[in-house]
Amino acid sequence: MLKSILENRPTLKAEIDKVAEVAGYLWQKGWAERNGGNITINVTEFVDDEIRRMPAISPAYPIGTTLPSLKGCYFFCKGTNRRMRDLARWPMENGSVIRISDDCASYVIIADKAVKPTSELASHLSMHNQMIESGNGYKAAIHTHPIDLIAMTHNRAFLQKDVLTNLLWSMIPETRAFCPKGLGIVPYYMPSSVELAEGTIEQLKEYDVVMWEKHGVCAVGPDIMEAFDQVDVLSKAAQIYLTAKSMGFTPEGTSQEQMDELKRAFNL
Ligand code: 2HA
Ligand code: ZN
Question: pTM to 2 decimals?
């Protein structure tokens, strides 16, 4: 049996372990039906000369767009049509490491198996390209289908800029503290489309979390655990809103003054 790229690479393995842990959370939360959702992480910092010499185990596939800042980059990506709950248990069977080709418009798979990456690869890699260009040091992108947050995007009133941000911030102070930029909104586009990727990139200039109308959420962060945490915090706030609603009343929400006080106290 061929050895895994993770063998004798504890720092790379630790990042893949975090991906597997988060994949398990997504399944447990009911956010990852069938093959729903995607995770990609930039693993370039863990790449050594031996990895750089590893031959392609797939043809060169087009990304669908050209991303100049990804030259020489490597990513671990969930496989297309693979289940999150399977990624949780067997990450290297349900995801793969890819190398961006020198043309920055295509990629090859290098390890462990020729598992073709996520259908949302163009939007994920566009997010990574932008994170590199912004210099924010972020290495992880997650896309998932949280029931409560998606339900909220079915209400047109919530799709106006920062309406949802302010509503969710006002449900519990932690949301203001741990999701300080709030969330952006991308109007409905076909899954996997270039429009969806471009809309996401535009919103990420301002936010770390972006809602895809009637589809799901995308979040970015320094690592996959932190990207997940932001979605988790927002989902908690959405749960509080809908629990109050199902008790028959509209929750009052903390006041603008109380939120401003928090902003000052936490230096947000
Ligand atoms: O990969 O969620 O939007 C499955 C999806 C695509
Ligand atoms: Zn999706």
Answer: 0.96
